[in-house]
Amino acid sequence: MNIVLLDPASAQDDLWTIQSARQIEHLKHQLDIKIGDTLKVGIRGAGRYTAEVIEISERKILIQPLYEEPVPKKLPVTLIVAMPRPKVLRRLIQDAVTLGVEKIILLHSYRVDKSYWQTPFLQQIDHYVQLGLEQAGDTFPPEIGIYKRFKPFVEDVLPQMISVERPAYVAHPYATHSMPHAIEHPCTILIGPEGGYIPYEIDLLKKNGCQAVSLGNRIIRTETVIPYVLGRLFSTW
Amino acid sequence: MNIVLLDPASAQDDLWTIQSARQIEHLKHQLDIKIGDTLKVGIRGAGRYTAEVIEISERKILIQPLYEEPVPKKLPVTLIVAMPRPKVLRRLIQDAVTLGVEKIILLHSYRVDKSYWQTPFLQQIDHYVQLGLEQAGDTFPPEIGIYKRFKPFVEDVLPQMISVERPAYVAHPYATHSMPHAIEHPCTILIGPEGGYIPYEIDLLKKNGCQAVSLGNRIIRTETVIPYVLGRLFSTW
User: Fold this and answer.
1) Could you give the ipTM of this predicted complex?
2) In this complex, is the C-beta atom of B231 within 8 Å of any C-beta atom belonging to chain A?
3) pTM
4) Do B37 and B149 belong together in one domain?
5) Of the candidates B69, B97, B113, which is a domain's last residue?
6) B228 touches chain A (CB under 8 A)
7) Which of A72, A171, B83, B184 has the smallest number of CB atoms closer than 10 Å to its CB?
8) Which CATH number goes with the domain that contains B137?
């Protein structure tokens, strides 16, 4: 937790209130904060501040904002991922948010086990968004989309996310072109499930405007490939 | 598991033997292999092959190598990481190996909790190396080094890993220069612990030939920063 992220409702008066048990536990026991210490604080969907600790009690901590600080920029990228295993989903959301992805879409695909859509983590995505923002020091949650049908998404929704200025790259081991690097424009990235998109899906993606690109001949896990691809694409950002 | 990685001892006769319970379990229950199927197989420290399944029994699977295939190239990088929490260590080793890091060094640092060096995972590193190689389809384990004293390592060992042709970059949030991208030469990368290297350590690293470079103003977890940095540095590789 590199900032304490508050709801706007907790930051309406002159003194702001930290009342999440998780945040209080971390501040008291990991950081051992005292009255008079300064903290980095963010308001969800708004600014980021340095604040001073005014009062510490059992169930709340009162702080006073001192000055505003810049919020880190987002990466101009929409990340479309075939729905992963629940354990991977948590990390993937948290990492994508930490790295500044603007929009995350979870998509069904032939090789996605249908049971993955039943995971309770899907109802807790916002918690992992919060952890990712607190790690990065960011305050703006990404947009999250969920599409449980592949074909209607690819035919009706995806084409609106693609243009000459905003290409879409699908990572595909058999592609002849390499994934570009150090681009200076927005883009959409598609990452397949374990085992990859099936040929029918790759064809449909290509027909609807995606470029299939290779990442070399190592097979990389979903949760690892996401930071790897973001580092590669946005290294000048 | 994208290849079955065997010890050279299991591959001395005309038919090779898979006898690891973990590999047999995966082949039988995840991949549901049958006699006559082909498998991707690697010999640890040697070649990679397509092989045919000849015999399946309770405790072993016999296979016949058909033809050799290329082993993925390594990245020309030495990755020096402040010893992380045990849970992170496993993932870090596995991901670094999957991505093709040539040499991995675990280093003590002021903000590394001394208890981390007691973890049983340190005795099981080779298992995570094996999993990383099997994921990538690689056969050559990286070199692994362990240094429990920061200063002697930085003063006596590190300088031998640095030259004009092989710079060393230490990720440091307060650096004025950015981490380079798409480099076409070998390098050494240093990643700090949670909370970063302390100023004394950064100074000592700089005095001994490292360049402090920034990755922007998002704070990224160790396990996430490694694929992120490798994607950024080696995107033309």
Assistant:
1) 0.95
2) yes
3) 0.95
4) no
5) B69
6) yes
7) B184
8) 3.40.1280.10
B48 in the same domain as B28: yes
Phi first, then psi: what are they for A153, rounded to 5°?
Answer: -65, -50
Q: Please, which pLDDT band fits residue A45 given cuts at 50, 70 and 90?
A: very high
Reading the block at residue B221, the tokens are 């977890």
Containing domain of residue B213, as a range?
75-233
| Closest chain B residue to A75, measured at CA | B218
Residues B119, B23 share a domain = no
> In this complex, which of A137, A228, A236 lies closest to B230 when CB atoms are compared?
A228
B140-161 confidence digits (pLDDT tens): 999 999 999 999 999 999 999 9
The pLDDT tens digits of the residues spanning A212-226 come to 999 998 999 999 999
Percent of chain B with pLDDT over 90: 96
Domain end call among A40, A69, A98: A69
Q: Where are the beta strands (DSSP E) in chain A?
A: 4-6, 16-18, 38-43, 48-56, 61-69, 75-82, 101-107, 143-147, 168-171, 187-191, 210-213
**Could you tell me if B159 and B197 lie in one domain?**
yes
Residue B28 maps to which CATH number?
Answer: 2.40.240.20
Determine the pLDDT at residue B174. Answer: 87
How far apart are alpha carbons A44 and A65 in whole angstroms? 15
Q: How far is CA B175 from CA B54, B169, B178, B186, B225, in A?
A: 58, 11, 7, 21, 16
CB count in 10 Å sphere of residue A55:
12
Q: Do B185 and B211 share a domain, yes or no?
A: yes
Q: In the prediction, which pLDDT does A110 show? A: 97
Q: Are residues A90 and A199 in the same domain?
A: yes
The whole-number pLDDT of residue A174 equals: 87
> Which phi and psi angles does B129 have, rounded to 5°?
-60, -45
Decide if B139 touches A, using CB distance below 8 A: no
How many structural domains is chain A composed of? 2
pLDDT of residue B49: 98
pLDDT (average), residues B121-133: 96
B31 touches A: beta carbon within 8 Å: no
Are A106 and A145 in the same domain? yes
Query: Do A56 and A99 belong together in one domain?
Result: no
Scan residues 75-134 of B and list those with Cβ closer than 8 Å to A. Answer: 95, 98-100
Tell whether B137 lies on the interface with A, counting CB pairs under 8 A.
yes
Q: What phi and psi values does residue B66 have, to the nearest 5 degrees? A: -105, -55
